[in-house]
Structures are given as C-alpha cells and as structure tokens.
Specification:
With about 160 residues, the chain is α+β, with helices and mostly antiparallel strands. Helices cover about 35% and strands about 45% of the residues. It contains four helices and six strands; from the N terminus they run H-H-E-E-H-E-E-E-E-H. Strands 2-1-6-5-4-3 form a six-stranded mixed beta sheet. The radius of gyration is 18 Å and the shape is globular. The termini are far apart.
Length: about 160
C-alpha cells in the first residue's frame, strides 16, 4: 500500500510540474502577443533571449519557397513604431514539447491588423529557460493567406 501511495504521489507531482512548465512556456508566447497588441517593444524584448533568430518561410510570386530572415532589433522596432490599429496574433492548438530547459511551442496562428485579416500559418517557437524565466531563442513561422483553418470562435472576434 505504501508503494502505491508513493507512486501516486510522485505521478501527481510530475503532472503538476509538467503542467506548470507548460503554462509558463505558453505564457512567454502570449506575453509576446500581448506586447505586439500594445505596441510595447520593451515588453516584447523581455520575451526573447539574447541573439534570438527569426525565420519566415514564404513563397514568392512564382510559388517558389524562400526563407526570410529578420533580426530581433528590426522586429522590436516594428512593434514599437506607432501604428493606427492593434496587431492581433491569435494561436490555437498549441503543442508544447519540453526536455529540461529546452522547449518548443508549435501552434497555428492568425494575424489581424485591427479587425482585418492579414495572414496565417504555423509558429514554431524554441525557448530556453533562463534565470528570469522562459525566453524565445528561435522563431520559425510560415505565412500564407488561405487554407488557414481558423476556428470560428476566433474569426468571429474580428468581424
């Protein structure tokens, strides 16, 4: 009986730890989205590790795939530059993978400028746990205009 109790205690503790880590990892991503919406480049900067890397997988006018590389300062400048409408990035179906201090978040997203749909795709965030918490160190994402599969409850928010 003691063995069963100990096994249950360890299992529950592991689940609680894993759930807490998952929540903390996702919170870093949602903090970035909140910063983008607020136009707050300082808040956005706090979500990233030093030397973070951005890659956008896109297609040119001929349909050929290319990799667009963006530097963190350029991205932060874009967030902090005044814009008339909010930048709203919404994700759904996030998958979180973690091994110790390394994690990945893979999620579908849609990006709206104000209430106007801009683009969609998949975000693939790699994060590292630092002393101050989880930080994004690498972001790959796709960008497209159709075949998004945006859930109705999300698209209805922007009508």
């Amino acid at each position: 009986m003691k063995t069963l109790y100990l096994t249950l205690l360890i299992s529950c503790s592991t689940f609680t730890y894993a759930q807490t880590s998952r929540d903390e990892i996702l919170k870093t991503v949602t903090n970035l989205f909140d910063a983008m919406k607020a136009g707050d480049s300082a808040q956005a900067h706090s979500c990233f590790g030093k030397n973070a890397i951005f890659n956008t997988v896109e297609k040119d006018k001929t349909g050929k795939t290319f990799l667009n590389i963006t530097q963190l300062p350029r991205f932060l400048n874009a967030i902090g530059t005044a814009h008339k409408e909010e930048w709203n990035e919404v994700m759904w179906n996030p998958t979180v993978l973690q091994d110790g201090d390394l994690a990945e978040v893979w999620a579908n997203y849609a990006f709206y400028i104000g209430k106007t749909f801009s683009h969609c795709g998949v975000d693939a965030f790699q994060l590292v746990k630092e002393e101050t918490g989880w930080k994004i160190v690498h972001l790959n994402y796709t960008r497209k205009k159709d075949d998004c599969g945006i859930p109705k409850e999300i698209s209805d928010r922007f009508k």
